[in-house]
Fold this protein.
Amino acid sequence: MFKILYNFERIRFSGKTFYPFYLSYNYKLRPVFKTIKLNKEYWGKKIPNLKYGTPNPLNAFSTDRDKFSDAMTTFKFLGVFKTTQAGRHKETQQFLKTYLVNFPNQLTILDIGASDGITSLDFINVINDSIKKYYVTDYNIKCTYYSYKGYTYFFDHAKNCFLVASEKFVFYPTDKKLFDFIFKKSLKKIKNFSKQELLLINSGLKEKKEGNEAIEIMEYNVFEAWPKEKADVVVVGNLLNKAYFDDAQIETALNNCYNALQENGILTIIRNILQENGEEIERSTIYKKNESAKIFNKVHEINGGIEIDEFVSSLSFK
C-alpha cells in the first residue's frame, strides 16, 4: 500500500512534507496500515482493481442510502465499526413476522445497537401494520464534526477525535503517536471551535419517521436500564458477542434486556458471520421471557443460532 502511495502522492500536514514509505521505516508497519488508509472513492478511479482502502467517510453527508451505509462502516467507536447493510437480518425478520402474528395487540419493539437504522427500516417495512411503537436505538447514534483545511474531524461523546477524512485518505487514532504527529496541531487549533452535530441515521429511516409518531430514534446504552415503556420484542443485532464484550458485560446487557421486556416478551439476538468466501451467514436465536422462572426460554434458532446461546440459557435474572 505504501509503495502505491509513494508512487502517486506526497502527504503534506501542517507545512510538513513526508512520504508514507518513511513512516513504515520509523513505525511498526501494522499500526501504519491501521492508522492511514486510502479513500477508495478517490484512489479507485486512479488505480485499477484497487484491493486496499476504505469507503469514503464523507458520504456520511450523502442522501444516497447505499453511500451512507458504506460510510457508516468506516465509523469506529471503542474498537467497534458501525458495519451494516440492508437485508442482513432477513431470515430472522421473516420468522418474527410469522411468529408475532400470535400476539394479540400491536407491538412495542426495542431495537438495540441499530447502527444507522437500515435493518430497523427493513423490519418496520416487514411488520408495519403491527407496530404500536418502534424504538431505534444505538449508543453512538450521533457524533460531532468540524471541517478544517481539507480534512473533516469527527468526535465522539467524550469529544475525542475517532476519525479524520479527506478526499484522498482516512485516518484512525490506532497508533496514537503517529496520529498525534499528523494532527496534534490541527486538533489543538480547532479544539474550542463550535462543532456541528451529525445524526448517524440512514436517510431512508429518516424519511419513514417523518410524520410517523410510532418511530422514535434515540441514544441508548445497553449497559444501562431501559428508561421507557416495556417492550414486546427486543432485537439486538451484532452487538452481544465475545469479540466485543466479556461475560460480565454481556450478562449486564442481557439483564437489562430482560427487564425491558413484558412478560412473555421476545428477545432476538442476531449475529452475522463473515465467511471465507466474503459472504455473510445470518445466525440468530429467539427467546421468550419467563418471568416466573426469571430466565429466557429458547423458542427458535436460525442457521445454528448464536455462539452465546448456552451462556444466555444458563443465566437467571433479577
DSSP finds eleven helices and 17 strands in the chain. The chain has a mean pLDDT of 89. Residues 176-190 form the longest helix (15 residues).
